[in-house]
Structures are given as C-alpha cells and as structure tokens.
Amino acid sequence: MARSKSIRAPTTASLPNNLRIPSTTPSLTKTLGKLSRQALLDLALLWLDDRNITSFPPYLQPEAENGIDDEETLPYPAAETVEEVRQAYEDLQDRKGGKREVLERILEGDWRHGITLRQLAMADLRYMDDHPASLRWTALELSLIESRQKQSANSPVADWSSSIPRTQAATFVKALQQEISPLVKGHYHISRSSTLPLTFLRIFIIDTPYQSPRQTPEIFADSSRLIYVAFPDSCPFIYTSISASTGSKAAPSISSIATDPRSLQRLVREALPKALSRPQERYTLKATALAAKSLPTLLALRGPGRTTAANGAFSIFADAAIEGSPLDPRPASTVSAEEHMRGGQKPRSPEDKENAKREGETSTASKRQSSIGDSELSPTSKKRRLAIHSRFGTAGGSQNPAPLDRLDIRLLDAPAPTRDDDSPAGTGYPVSLTFTGSDVIGGIRKLAELGVIDPERMPSWMTGEEAISLAVVRDGKRVKRPA
Amino acid sequence: MAQPARDAPASPDPLEKELDEDIQSIRAEIRTLQRRKRFLASSLLSSDSVQKLTRKLPPALTSIHDEVSPLIHAAGKHSELNHYRIGFGTTAFPFKDPSPAAPTESLLGVRIDICARNGRFAKPYYVLLKSEHARGEVKKRLCVHRHTIPAFIALSKLESVYLPFPVSRKVQGEDDHGEESDGEAIEALKPVQKGRNAGGKQDLRGFVRELRRELVAWHLRTDAIELLREKLGLSEESQLDPAERLSPEARGGIVSLALTALEARYVRMEWEDGRVGRFKLSNTGIVERAVVIGDGGRDKQTENAMTGAGGRVESLLDRLQRRDSRTA
Fold first, then answer.
1. Which of A31, A175, A308, A466 could bridge A275 with an S-S bond, Cβ 3.0-4.6 Å?
2. ipTM value
3. B7 burial level (CB within 10 Å; 0-12, 13-18, 19+)
4. Model pLDDT for residues B96-112, shown as the tens digit of each residue
5. What are the chain B neighbours of A164 within 8 Å (beta carbons)?
6. The pLDDT of residue B276
7. Is residue B25 predicted with pLDDT exceeding 90?
8. How far apart are CA A140 and CA B232, in angstroms?
9. B120 near A347, Cβ under 8 Å?
10. Residue B70 lies inside a defined structural domain of this protein
11. What pLDDT is recorded for position A247?
C-alpha cells in the first residue's frame, strides 16, 4: 500500500470509507464469492451508479499511454469511460453464465486497484438481504433509565408512546464513534434493508489507532471483527449479532488490554445504548432471552407488530383468527380461521401489509397442511387436534412465520415429581434441555399431533407462548433469571 | 384431475392442459359463489326484518320454527354482538388460559375495534388480563397477561398508572428465590409504584379508554397521511374521488411525502427543488413542529405555513398551496 509510507499519526477518527483493500486478498474473493451472480451484478451496477461513481471509481485506462503492452496481456483490458464499464455489466446481465466471470471481472478488471471498505460493507449487507438466516441474532430491549426525581414529581402523564430513541443515523454513528474510538477503531456502514422493516448498522472493528492500519489486508474480511446491529422500526428493541454471553456482567478485566475481537465486541455493545442516549434520556440494554437465526422470527417475536406479546395459545388473537370484523354478518363459528386471517388483511393498516408479504411466502406450505388435515379423523385424534389447537393456536403450524432454530431450557424441578416432601425448589438437580432444528415449536407441535406429547399437560414454554429461546423453568413456569 | 397430468408429465396434451385450466377456474368460481351464498344467507338471517318476523311467528308454523330458529337465533345473537362492537368499539369477553401451569384459568379479554378510513375495520386489538392476588391483599387485582398492541404504545406505562399492582409483578412465576437475584430490576420498579398511588385503586375503564385513544390516534395519523399521499397522487391504490386529487401543478413541487416509521409520528417530505422537510403529528392530528431545509438554509415561511392556521394535517396541502400562490 502506498499509503503506509506517508506519516502515520494515531487519531480517533473512524476508518475511511475509501480505504482500499487489495483485490488480490484471498479472503476478499471468498467474501464476495458468497454472493450470487445476480447480486454481484446488482452491486457492480450500484457502484457504477451516478451517485456512487465518485466513491468507487472503476479502474479506467490511464490517459497518458505509457504501458500499453502491459495492458494488452491482462485478461480484462481497462475501459476508457465509465459508460463502457456499465455496458459491460449490463451485457453480463443479459446473458447467462457463472458468477465466477463476474467476480473475476470485478476483482481483476474494473476494481483491480482495490475494493474499498464501503464496497465490502455493501456486499456484506446485500448477502444479508439474500440470506436472512446467515447470522445468529440476539434481541435486546432498550429501556429508559428514569431518574428518581422525575418519578416523585407526580406529573400527569399524557404521553403513552414507548420510549423509542429518535436519532438521525449520522448523529448516532458519530456518537457511537465518539464513545468507542479511544478504544476501538471502526468502520461504520448504515443501510436500510430492502426486504425487511429494519435498518442495519455494520461495524467493522480493529485495534489500531492509525488511519491506514498496517495489519494484513486479510483482517478486513475477518467475520469475527464484524458486528451487525439491526434497528427494527418503531419498537424499543434492537437486534445484534453479538452473542449474548459477551454482554454478561462479568467484571471487565481492566488490566488486560482489549485486543481480541471478543472484547472489542463487548466494548461496542456497551457503547450502543450510550450513543442512543441524550441528556435526561438515558437508555440501557436489557436481555430478552431470545436469540434466533432468522430475522423474520425476531421481527415477529420482538418487533413492532401484534405478535410480540401474543404467541402460542394466544396467537389466535395476534392473527385475529377467531372472530371477524364487526361488519361480517357470518357467525364466527361458521368461518374458518384462514378466512378470518385473510379477511382481516383487507383493511390496509401498515402492519397488515407486512403480514400480507409474509403470507405470500407461506401460502404454499399452508396448502400442503390443509390437504393433510382434510383426511378422516377418529374421535380421539379429533379431540387431540382440538387440544393442540387450543394450546398452539396458529403458531407452530406450517403457517408459522417465526421459526425458532434453538430452544434452551433449564428445568429446576426434580425430575420425578415428589410433591410430598416440601423441599425448596431449586435444590434438586437441574436438567438442561436443548432443542435444535429448523423450527423447534413446529416440531413440538408435530410430536403432539402424533400423540407423543400430551397437549393438555404440556407446559406453556413448549408451545412458544413465552416467545423465548432461553428459559429457566420451575413448576412449569418461567423464572426470569437463574439464581 | 391431477391424475392424468401426473401420469404423462413429459407430453402435456395441449387440449388436456386447457381442460385442466378450465376445471381449475370453474372450481375457483364455485368456491367464490359458495362463499357469497353463505355471506348472503347470513346477512339475510341477521337482517332486521327477518329477526322481527320470527319473533311474532304464529305458533302454528312450528315445523319452520324448529328447523330455522337455531340458525336465526345464532345470526341474531351474532348481529347483536356486532352492533355492540361497532357502537362501543370496546367489548369484553372471557377466555380460558389453556396452560396447565397457569394459576388462574380464566382471563378477561378486552377487544378493541377500530374503524379505518376506508370504512372497514382493522384487525381487532386484544388485551388479555389476568387477576392475581397481590401480596398481603385479599382482593384480586388485574394485570396484563398477553396483548396484541403494537410495541410503540407503552402498555407497561399505562398499566403502571391505571392498573397499579402493589409489590412487583414478578410475584407470579417466581418466589423470593427469584427476587433476590433480580434485586436491581425491582429496585427500578418500586419507585414507579410508590410515586403513583401504589396499592391504589385499579381503573380498568381508564386503562382501556387511554389505550383505545392511543390506538385510534395512530390509525387516524396513518389515515391522514394516506389521504395526503392520495391527494398528491403518490399512492398506488386510491379511494379518493379523482376530482379531489391535485393536479401536478397544484402539488407545489412536492415529490415525496412519507411516514418515517410505523408509528406515524414523523413525516418526511421532499420537494422538487431539493428542499426536504419533516413534521411531527400530534395525537389530535395537528402538525406540531415542522422543519424545512433547502440549499439556502431553513425555509421558515414554509414551516410557518405548515404549522400555522390551526395546523390541521388534512388541510396541510391547501395551506402550502396558498403560500405558494402568495409568493408567486
């Protein structure tokens, strides 16, 4: 890198957007190689868009022609104008082929002088849009720390809106950068998700005080140095890709200098609520015992919509599956749940649009389900089906938009119910259960349908009613925090 | 009909395919007609005249009576329920918690129906309350168990004011054992309850009234913005009379007007000449604050036009138009 010869002075600024990573870096090829051909083409055309062309100019033929022979031997002769480059990608778009040729054209042709950090961030976020289940997300709740004085002043509260911090993206990033820059140097990229009602913040962290780090370029594509934070619209939750354990209250060892990615991540996590805070309005992050791979799950269980606090047996209310609109003349019992749910979508309230989108994805699955359900049933299985319906509601069925991929349960009860001796609970042997799979609650429902689990005696955490992926349970009830 | 198609997937006979498609469409039509028939039948049964007629049916016609009356009775009951829902907007119902671990099986459900601008009702909102024994009290108190209220309405704040629960709500599900480890959270909760009539009377009516008001205000805000968007021709589907829509010249160069988030509290505007603006909507539908920034700094005149003259959001575009014609 030519930059490293210039004077290096430690600063607290963030890494510049236009810091170039040599395009020969193997990990860069790997990162970009994860994208599909269409995604790569879209990205290249986005980079060549008029708004972005100044940020990431492609490699063009130098005006002074001094090394022509050299150029000729390269597989991708440099274009003369941006228009020409654009045309090349549009041509690639029209014809079929592998993604290899697009990737090579990007790295060895038009951006042979390097891919900037911002380009890499855009590529990563594009990958996230295409693969919403590529990371494991933890949901955290933002809550206001209210000062005591404010409480004692018995002012009539007229504002019932939730305490959602309102901030401009740029202001927030600046505040965050100020908070962590003395300890961590980062590169920040904010972007709106194209498929979900979310805003992503991608933070790349590195422990160097210099603007142009001397580390090997490999480090820029190191996924352990990446932190994603997603801000869902209009709700007091945030989702992070930082695993929950790093945020625990373990005493931070001040003596050891934070250099490994994990402690850097912890620093960022601690800085997040501070950056969202304002004078007289301090926020803190609380764990919500939910982590899942799919973002739609988090949006359903800790999102702005109706399903956040009504799951499992209560999902019939969230989906409005039992009663229709007051204008419907048909008695509620004569109309099927699916029809109710569909009928409720006609009025176009904002959240219904989301549901409609979701329904489109799941409709094929629901058809399959209904064809199974139409078969003849014996009275016992009919009874079981009713019980299952009352316990799971619409959740866990094939229409379920919120599959959990993992459910960790710690049972504090003694394995054999010995009710006669009144020993304090918790002194027994705790049992840990871990369920994993593509849809845990759906699987439990299937087991109940097959008669393996008694749907009437099953505790409510098995039906997804609690909307958690991690719980400590005693007497079938959830305990908020382990002792 | 899927059978022959599956047998010969390699050579789909064009005639057969056509027939299949025909059958598909006919079946779909039958389904919609059946649905319509059901709809009309229940409308008829619940209609006022039929209901009145059955009430004074001569006893001689018992055969009709026995056959039809359960249906008519159900329809009558349902329409009465619907009248309550339309008339009062908030109805209560009992619900049984199916969880075997639940301390109290019966829950009190509250259903809130809200009519949107298009004359339809939004999906009903539900709050399910359970009654619990507060520590050291004989009488049971209500607290929110589950709900379908959007997250931007602070239900917990409402609850702490209108449905105060003396100790901490963590009593259920965990005893003293859990509380010890949770000392911090309780510490944070206690002053809330002390400050506002801790152990005071619970006011379910007040709770529901405030909640409904908040929900209605949200729907009104979204509807108002949708109306403005339709007037500007920015919305794809329009329920507005085309005559009410503004001509491109009358739009005053507004190219975009959109909500910033689901909560519909802030609205972002964009003009042709690069000015961007943002305004805040109050619960009563008034533009509370507005900021418009162009290349030459703040555009105070436009801001004043937006917030001035009562500041109703519905007449926002008229005010902007008037301002434009005055300056032109």
1. A175
2. 0.72
3. exposed
4. 877 777 666 788 888 88
5. 152, 263
6. 87
7. yes
8. 39
9. yes
10. no
11. 39
B22: pLDDT confidence band, cut at 50, 70 and 90?
very high
Same domain, B97 and B182: yes
Among B207, B238, B270, the domain-final residue is B207
For chain B, the farthest-separated pair of C-alpha atoms sits apart, in whole angstroms, at: 87
Dihedral of the alpha carbons of B51, B55, B57, B60, in degrees to the nearest 10: 130
Residue B224 lies in a domain: no
Supply the pLDDT for residue A354.
Answer: 40
B192 touches chain A (CB under 8 A): yes
Q: Determine the Cα angle at A231 with ends B125 and A258, to 5°.
A: 140
Same domain, B262 and B309: yes
- Asked if B280 and B186 sit in the same domain, the reply is no
Whole-angstrom distance, CA of residue A439 vs CA of residue B146 = 23
Give the mean pLDDT per block of 10 residues along chain A (483 residues): 57 74 77 81 80 74 53 63 77 77 78 80 84 82 67 51 74 83 80 83 78 66 78 84 51 47 77 82 81 83 79 77 74 64 44 39 39 54 80 67 80 60 56 84 83 80 80 74 46
Residue B26 has a pLDDT of 93
CB-based contact A460 B266, cutoff 8 Å: no
Interchain contact B247–A (C-beta under 8 A): no
- The architecture in CATH of the region A311-479 reads Roll (3.10)
pTM above 0.90, yes or no: no
Residue B159, pLDDT score: 83
Contact A364, B110 (CB under 8 A): no
A109 close to B (CB below 8 A): no
Residue B170 has pLDDT above 90, yes or no: no
For chain B, give the mean pLDDT.
75
Residue with more model confidence, B185 or A151 = A151
Residue, of B300 and A355, whose pLDDT is higher: B300
In a domain, B259, yes or no: yes
What is the pLDDT, as a whole number, of residue B328? Answer: 61
The whole domain housing B191 covers: 90-207
Residue for token digits 């403005």? Answer: B228
- In the stretch 159-178 of chain B, residues with CB closer than 8 A to chain A read 161, 170, 172-174, 177-178
Q: DSSP label at B274?
A: S
User: What is the per-residue pLDDT for A462?
Assistant: 80
When CB atoms are compared, the residue of A310, A330, A424 closest to B146 is A310
Alpha helices in chain B (DSSP H): 2-7, 14-46, 48-55, 62-88, 155-162, 176-181, 183-195, 204-231, 300-307, 316-327
Question: A249 — contact with chain B (CB < 8 Å)?
Answer: no
Q: Which uninterrupted H or E stretch holds B93?
A: strand B90-96
Judge if B94 and B191 occupy the same domain: yes
- For A36, half-sphere exposure in the C-beta direction (CA atoms, 13 angstrom radius) is 11
Provide the pLDDT for residue A157.
52
Choosing from B207, B222, B238, the residue where a domain stops is: B207
Nearest CA in chain B to A232: B261
**pLDDT above 80 (res B124):** yes
* Rounded Cα distance, B198 and B161, in Å: 9
Q: How many domains are contained in chain B?
A: 2
On whether both B202 and B259 belong to a single domain, the answer is no
Helix (H, G, I), strand (E, B) or coil at B86: helix
Going by their DSSP bridges, the two strands B297-298 and B287-294 should be labelled as antiparallel
Residue B50 lies in a domain: no
